[in-house]
Design brief:
CATH topology: Porin
Shape: elongated
CATH class: Mainly Beta
Number of strands: 8
Largest sheet: 8 strands, antiparallel, barrel
Helix content: 10-25%
Number of helices: 1
Number of domains: 1
Radius of gyration: 18 Å
Order of helices and strands: HEEEEEEEE
Strand content: 35-45%
């Protein structure tokens, strides 16, 4: 446990850890129900109303550098907070996706991202590998942190684009790495319902 900084376990992260626990429990429950469904229907001919939905959880974000005060109105003791993300995404066709993410941003502010995007398998010989590009409306980077992301206003509303690269381990589980501009990399675990 010494590898995890003590600030990770602080009270301010309790809501993030609680959300992480609920998300983990939900993913495990969905996994076991999907496994039992595949035993009952091995060819997958029965599709549910949730087919094509992916649930995601990002427990860790790596920042390229420490937070620093860049403008006079920003706090003097600026530090990155623990970042987590929960999202739901629907595959609209072979390449198009749309989704919604709820997350705690790098400064501890609750934030949201509603998006539309494209997902591709670039190599026919490696269908597990995928590239994704999403763009949409982001909300939550409010004053005094509203200038930490481009195209954002003082009230926390902005637009953004997020590229990602991922790997599907099997038909349900996958992982992806979200590139958050020149600030950070977000590691995300996905569960897809078939």
């Amino acid at each position: 446990m010494s590898a995890i900084p003590s600030t990770f376990w602080s009270r301010r992260n309790a809501s993030g850890l609680g959300a992480a626990s609920w998300c983990s429990a939900l993913l495990c429950a969905l996994s076991s129900s999907a496994w039992s469904a595949s035993v009952d229907d091995p060819d997958g001919s029965d599709s549910s109303a949730l087919s094509g939905w992916t649930l995601g959880y990002a427990p860790y974000t790596y920042h390229y550098s420490n937070a620093k005060k860049e403008r006079d109105f920003e706090p003097d003791d600026e530090r990155h907070k623990y970042v987590w993300l929960l999202n739901a995404e629907k595959k609209l066709d072979d390449h198009q996706v749309a989704g919604f993410a709820y997350f705690s941003n790098s400064f501890g502010q609750p934030s949201q991202y509603a998006y539309y995007g494209w997902q591709f398998q670039p190599l026919a010989s490696t269908p597990q590998l995928f590239l994704k590009l999403t763009g949409g409306v982001i909300h939550g980077y409010k004053y005094p942190y509203h200038r930490k992301i481009p195209l954002n206003n003082r009230n926390g509303w902005g637009i953004t684009a997020i590229p990602a690269v991922g790997w599907n381990y099997n038909q349900h589980w996958g992982g992806q790495l979200n590139v958050l501009g020149k600030s950070a990399l977000m590691f995300q675990l996905n569960y897809t319902m078939r």
